[in-house]
Amino acid sequence: MNDMSRTETGVNLTDIKIAARKVQVHYGANHAIKDVDVDINDRMVTAFIGPSGCGKSTFLRCLNRMNDTIPVCRVEGEIRLDGDDIYDRRVDPVQLRAKVGMVFQKPNPFPKSIYDNVAYGPRIHGLTRSRAELDEVVETSLRRAALWGEVKDRLAAPGTGLSGGQQQRLCIARAVATSPEVLLMDEPCSALDPIATAQVEELIDELRSRFAVVIVTHSMQQAARVSQNTAFFHLGNLVEFGETSQVFTNPKDPRTESYITGRIG
Amino acid sequence: MSIGLLVIVIVLIAAAGFLAGRARARRASEGDTRALHSLVGFHGQAVFLFTAVPALLLIAVWLLVQPAVIAERVTGLLASERSEGALNLALGDVHRVAAGLDRLVAQGDLSEAAVAGLSVEGTDLRRTLGTAGVAVAGRVRGEVLTAAREYRRLTHLSARAMTIAAIALALAGLGFSLARITVEFRARNVSERFVLMLFIGSSLIAVMTTFGIVASLLVESIHFFSLYPARDFFFNLTWNPQFGGGSSLGIWPLLWGTLYISFVALLFAVPVGLLSAVYLSEYATRRMRAFVKPAIEVLAGIPTIVYGLFALVTVGPFLRDFFAQPMGLGTSSSSVMTAGLVMGIMLIPFVSSLSDDIINAVPQSLRDGSYGLGATQSETVKQVILPAALPGIVGAILLAASRAIGETMIVVMGAGAAARMSVNPFEAMTTITVKIVSQLTGDTEFASPETLVAFALGMALFVFTLMLNIVALYVVRRYREQYE
Amino acid sequence: MTDAAFPPARPRGGSLLEPDARTLRRNAAEARFRLYGVTAIAIAMIALMILLISILSHGTSAFRQTFLHLPIALDEAVLDPSGTRDPAALRKVTTIGYGRLIDRALGEAIAASGITVEGLGKSDISRMVSRQAAATVRSAVLADPALIGTTQEFRILASSRIDGYMKGRVTQDSAARDSNVSPAQLHLADALRAQGLLGTSFNWRFITDPDASELRPEAAGLGIAILGSAYMMIVVLALSLPIGVAASIYLEEFAPRNRFTDLIEVNISNLAAVPSIVFGILGLAIFINFAGLPQSAPVVGGLVLTLMTLPRIIIPARAAIKAVPPSIRDAALGVGASKMQTVFHHVLPLATPGILTGLIIGLGQALGETAPLLLIGMVAFVRDYPEGLPGGLFDPASALPVQIYNWTQRADPAFAERASGAIIVLLIFLLAMNAAAIVVRRRFERRW
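^ Those are the sequences you sent over. The predicted structure of the assembly is below.
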């Protein structure tokens, strides 16, 4: 079925990386996500916005099955990555997460050296065959995360010794090093100061050239600055999904308008 | 007056003081207790505390110091005893004779006048004392009888003096604190300050305990080293105490046994404990945890004497029959292996609960980071959680090692008594703690090097475990601060 | 799902649905690691099971004891030759005289029931009976001199080897190699049991009687040990509860942060890890040698155990006090209560369950502690019950764990059975205490 659809529609349409249909998430008795349909385009930044507690982070964590680590969490519906249902029984979440990387709200470098932090993913996934190759991956990842210049002389220093902004860029480099196809970012700038935020935003724009990026943010300005598509969540529902410019300038749903103009949220 | 009765009397006086203080405060306020600085209850409380506490403290100190003072006086009467050992024996006789006379008087078999009239020649004192259930070795010498009489006199005198002093002090406190009660008197502040002092005193007991341990170990160790050369103790490779003197008391065979057994125990307990902790905190379902964790805690609650018996009746014979004898490694059921294995079982809950705490202190965000990169759970455990928890785990292992080194009953019952330095784990060896017990519970006289060596061994044990504890507690504390 | 619902996909790399070789390898490693964890837990559980089964299987038989039911003729000619029933004269007859009466009674009973056993000597018959039996009969007679001259039915202890045979510890094979028992005696025991003269029944005296000498394991009991342990626990409770709570309150609520407080805290955490035997040395040096308190006395044991237990009580008590939220203190201070009133009216009641749980667990540890008690002379052989409180605190007594140790050091295997039985008693006490701790925690558990 998938093969057929691929050949039929070919490459002329926009590249849809992840397609989610009728996704429901339950936390025990709490129905956290209701009937969400979203398409994530490849090589674009998609922003999830909405007031806190609206389920945007929960939905993000469904996309690489991070919710599996929470025992009471139950996910229903379908999420397809390149046409494969990621909740299929045959899918190994470990393999999935190698393709769908994640950056968290709070920078969480491992208590290891900067080098080992970045090399962690390539090592566990066996992406490199020699030390020289690994060195190269570490360097390109750090360069891509715009951190190389600051840390190239102290790769053996502990990652926990960096500043907050540097730590978050290290975590991005760490995620990039496994060469994922999708990068999920859960409020990556919420713990950072404005200067570090600007650096990370710039970085996100560059990453777009290689991956699909999904970013959860509580800042509408940030969503407007970095994203091409925007999804607005409210109380577990996806209220509106469309091109960022359209959502911000001409929202179809009154709730979106209220949120954007600051009446709710 | 017996001590129990005396304590009750003082508490009663204080209780009366409480009521009196309350009534006096009420009277001072002329019926309007709002005029008082403090509630009437505080006035009563202040009187109670000032009455009871000093008197009770006096009794405690008196009881602690009295025997030493009396012994000092009685020793003067035992002039003929030259050596310290003989003096100690004679003092023991004095105590026994005095106790026997007390009992005879209490039973009404002997009047006080008759005691004064007793002489060594006239009656068979030993037989008389025997009827009171007091056994005295050999004939009672005149000197001892005189000393015993003096001992009784002083003891009774002291008891009477203590009773009078304690009651007097209680009444003085009562009068003083009652006299202080006025409308302005800040009874709440005073009694709270008093209670705070008691609190401080209570927390000082820990310091005093440490001081007591160090002092008693140090004094008797110095005593030991004055009788036996320190060089031999620390460098001699044989342990062979003799009754008649000429012992070699080298610590090395004991140290070797201690470390060997502890090593075997840790070799067993650390992997088992650590892996159980990892499994319980990272993998186990809630149901499994609810069952396994209490079961492991049961192991922790079992007294070491039970483990000792387990080593003696089950593990020892099993290891001997199925391992040591078929392999030709020995025929002893008590061995390094027996004690080490059982001690290992004892340490499992210790290692696992400490590791559990430490692993749980690793923040969830690190786990998320690792899973988010596509690591499996075991990769996360091995490459992120355990390295992050390493300092804490090292601390836990050091604490477990300190427990193993200081453990007594398991080695007393499972390791054997032979001091030897061998590498065969199926041979019986002995440890520092075993020898402390055997040297101090034996029949040798107290002042001999064979007995006093126990204090030097205790000192070595204390210093050794203290260093381990301090390092371990420091490491664990630093580790916790890192993630707080 | 229809095609329209799912937009076309453009795969890069392999499909997620087919795990690659490396993932399979990694999953195998994962499974192995899980297996290690399960194995570790299994080892711990199996060790616990073997430990408990070993103790229970060795010890339960200690609660049953073999008795002989014999009519014994209390011959006046032996027991009261003068015929005056004068207590002093009656006392003069030793257990040897009573022993003869028992031997005679047993011989008659055997003859009366027509039992014949090959190779049974006269001494074999008398050694069927415990050495304790004569004392039992003697004290019954001294208590009631009117019994003299009558024939009374007595329940007397059989000797430990016969008891062992009834419980399967002694067999015909082992008896052939044992100088203390002959196979003929065992045959006789079988015959007596068939006649109903010999049988086992529940042995209360194991729990109530004092210890007995090396030669009469069948008479040894735990009475003094249980009483001694109880006395020590009273001392520990009376001292460590107030002192421990006071110290915890001071350190948690009042102590300023300075070097002196640090010193106290470091001391407490170190004392909690000092080997227990060191406390025994402390007790020997300070309480016995310096202060001259009597050896083997529960008061000394109680003091030593108090010092040992205090840090182990203070640590959980402090945690319980710390767990009381500061908002409650602020509320009390806000209405003008003094700091001390806040502590006593609000903090302490809320921390009580935590403090009590720690206290009970600490007491449990103290109850099972052996090593320090060995050094302060609690190993001594004690036959006389200590007096009532408080004077009894200064009388010699034993303690449960020490009594267990004591019995393991004796040669007769019958004592090993009693040691295991005593452990069951000890574990029952500990179980009860821990159950109490759980009840306290459940009952007063509070969430904020």
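The interface with chain A takes residues 1, 3, 5-13, 15-20, 22-23, 26-27 of chain C (CB under 8 Å). The beta strands of chain C are 64-73, 151-157, 198-202.

Shout if you want it in another format.
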